[in-house]
Amino acid sequence: MQHEKTHIVPYRTYLIILVALLIFTLLSVKITAIELGGLTVAAALIFASLKSYLVLTYFMHLKFDKIYIRIMVGFVFAVFLAVIIITFLDYYFR
Amino acid sequence: MQASSHIPHDVSYLDYKGKHKGLLAWILSTDHKRIALLYMFSMMTLFLVGVLLGLAMKLELIAPGKTIMGAQDYNAVFTVHGVIMIFMIVVPGLPAVFGNFLLPIMIGAKDVAFPKLNLFSWYVYIAGAILVIISVLFGDGSPDTGWTFYAPYSFKTGTNMLPAIFGAFVLGFSSILTGLNFIVTIHRLRAPGMSWTKMPLFPWTIYGTAWIQLLATPVVGITLVLVSLERIFGIGVFDPALGGDPILYQHLFWIYSHPAVYIMILPAMGAISEVIPTFSQKHIFGYKAIVASTLAIAFVGYFVWGHHMFTSGMSGTAQYTFSILTFLVAIPSAIKVFNWISTMYKGSISLETPFYWAASFIFVFMIGGLSGLVLGALATDVYVHDTAFVVAHFHFIVFGGVGFAFFAAIHYWFPKMFGRMYDTTWANVGWIVFFIGFLALYSPMFYLGLQGMPRRYYDYLEQFHAANILSTLGSWVMTFGLAIVLINLFRSAKSGPIAGANPWNGKTLEWTVPSPPPVENFEEIPVYGEKDGPYEY
């Protein structure tokens, strides 16, 4: 079996990501106290997307994966974004 | 990496004596071919239940007023019919049965990438099916919301909804795991030299389908969890009394359930794309166009869900957008039809049973597709929404599409799967009886819908009587045809004449291995040369 390149991520990086995730979680809760009107959902989704990005990149090692795998994940995010935008064509213009 | 093993190559997967015997040798086997047959027999059993429920509905509608059941029973029957047929038959149908059996062989692999996960998917499927059956047999009455579980009714009704919702949720997991397995298999286990543009079309459609399974199914999973939480705790996401939005449920449900139509139809199109070149003895016309249209259908199909909601109170902007997108998805579907017909043109057509099923698939699929444009157009949809017209449309697409393709596929690959040939005379008789019954059953519903007969009503006005009688008679004829087909296949699997490795002169890899295939498919993994291709006649 072909041996693939291994990579070791220092614990320090994982800890930083963990702290970042906790901060984003706190922010996504705190921001609900601010009246953003139609942008409330957008704000929540932005924080959720940032957290997903960090988890995928570091915890799921996407950073070290082949380019086509990263493109496929990016494509999934693009589909998700398009679905959200189309859904809000209903809510914003209702 | 596919390790070599001690399993002898001359033993077929049906005859192989492994660690276990009897039933255990099947339900503990990780061989993709045995798992495919596990799916097939589970689905056939559930399909017969669904057919019986359908027959009961048509019998109820043979005359106005109560015939054999009242309103509540009718609601329960069409709900359970829908849940079984959609979640347990047509969504997993072709990928789980023919995808499992043929995908590894067609790409030159010994098995799928994760054989144990594959078996686990079947167990998850059975667990989901059992939950749905529990919802029917126990508790406070069978679910009665329709297979769509629309809010707010799904959390207001007093019937036994939770096991049914949870069952659909669990069935979704099976679908996701199967999709994941197929994507990895296609990426990692294609035969050396089999580039993407040399891969047969059935695996291509399985690939497109697997992506939809993977990306869309979690949405309905979460949605069903939210309905359950709404029902148990009243969390207020969908309940308007608590500030929730029931139309949000419809969005979330159809974000999955419309792509699910393509989960159903893409592998069906893949099977037809295999049958037609073989029985025309001709290279498939426009291979790359078919591949591109497969991916286009899978992609655009994500963004058309709102056409199920034109009368829900959705904004005008969203309605126009969904209508335009819906018309776009018709283009790649039409490309496929043109390519199939062009493949037949000047081909050496042999009129065998799989070809009859494939040709009738094109016929009913086109009627279903064109009637879909009536529903995709805003102006006409308003008139036929929630009428029998919609029921006719989706049965032409879903049953006409998936059902006819399933029977085309089973008659095409039957000699490969069981190593025996069926009685072609009875197979052809079964097809024509089924085809006539199908048209008699569903065509009158177009007329009834245009005349204003609503769907999901157990009763109707006298003016709808004649067309309903024709439709009910059609259901009997179609079931008679189905019985002929199934009895012929079961009998032939046991005692039909022995079939050769390549009875149809097919050119894809499954026809290069013995019938039925050995446990690990290939003694040596095939290697594709520069000039090799799946349809080189």
From TrEMBL, chain A:
One of its GO terms (cellular component) is plasma membrane. InterPro entries: Caa3_sub_IV, Cyt_c_oxidase_su4_prok. It is a multi-pass membrane protein. Its main location: membrane. Signal peptide: none annotated. The chain crosses the membrane at residues 12-33, 39-59, 71-93. Keywords: Cell membrane, Membrane, Transmembrane, Transmembrane helix. It is found in: Cell membrane. This is Cytochrome c oxidase subunit 4. It comes from Mangrovibacterium marinum.
TrEMBL record, chain B:
It comes from the Bacteria. It is a multi-pass membrane protein. The keyword Thylakoid does not apply. GO terms for biological process: aerobic respiration; electron transport coupled proton transport; respiratory electron transport chain. Residues 20-529 form the Cytochrome oxidase subunit I profile domain. InterPro entries: Cyt_c_oxase-like_su1_dom, Cyt_c_oxase-like_su1_sf, Cyt_C_Oxase_1, Cyt_c_Oxase_su1_BS. It is found in: Membrane. Keywords: Electron transport, Heme, Iron, Membrane, Metal-binding, Respiratory chain, Transmembrane, Transmembrane helix, Transport. Pfam families: COX1. The chain crosses the membrane at residues 36-57, 77-107, 119-141, 161-184, 204-227, 247-272, 284-305, 317-335, 355-379, 391-414, 426-449, 469-490. GO terms for molecular function: cytochrome-c oxidase activity; heme binding. GO terms for cellular component: membrane. Belongs to the heme-copper respiratory oxidase family. This is Cytochrome c oxidase subunit 1. It comes from Mangrovibacterium marinum.
